[in-house]
Write a structure and sequence with these properties.
The chain is an alpha+beta fold. The chain has twelve helices and 14 strands. The longest helix has 21 residues, at about 190-210.
Length: about 300
Amino acid sequence: MRSIVDRLQALSKVIAEKCRISATPGAPIGVLHKDKVIYTHNYGYRKVESSIPPDENTIYHIASRSESFTAASMAILVEEGKLSWDTRVREILPDFKHVDFTINDEATILDFMSHRTGLAPKNMLWLHEYAGVELRRSETLEMVSYLETIDNVARAYMALSDGTPYHLPRPSVEDGVIIEGAVGVQSSVADLLTYSQNVMQAADDQISRNITSTEGSPLKQVPTLLENHINQSPAPSKLERSYALGWTRTMLPGPLGTVGLNPVYVEAMPLVGKGLKEPRMVYHHQGSLIDYLCSFHLIPFTRTAIVVLTN
């Protein structure tokens, strides 16, 4: 049987063709397996006008994948005792006032982080990526004066009707923008593979020892970050599909990629893991901004992570 790397390399032409058909300018891909990076490949360009290709360190917006980082940051505050998962939102944000008294009085951090408040998404209200952020020069000048420049950043593009990539401004979702916590993180394939490895290692340690902190790891409360907080199965099933904190949980065999834009364009996602002897859990999520997409899968039982970023 061919090695995993051979099979990944054999997909190169197929992936390149899909990038061409979908008018995707660039797409770096990385695969971690058994805690080692076994494969990276970079398709297309991070800057079309100059034909500059991306690499595993090219910075992309990761959109909704930011949610897992926001949840991990909240977990640090929980571990430090500054708040709890059951802290009511109104205790932190006194100006939070909802017409539904139950939501207003009882909704917790965990409810909002796991998307189980029952509130309508109203995504179009949040998709103002180009809103400017006003900063006082007195507050930022000293910091900005010492910031180094980073050039290895993927440009943003949208496809015209003929498939031609059209350059757009980068999304303004930095500090101070309302959807920062949901879509504000920028990262690279290399860094996300490192993050994936550390998530799986911390999960193994904390779950096996029934603890909430791993020595030497910034990741806290990982069992809570990864556990089921709300069911997502469309019908009763023995195989779990649920949402954690910034992660979708799918028990294989099962459909992957059901969260994100795929349901808009695909009637049903393919069933993955048909040949498994026993059910296995996969953690995954997609991210989408107007001009960036990403896909992120963790497969703990083989110590595998798959990261795909596009502009």
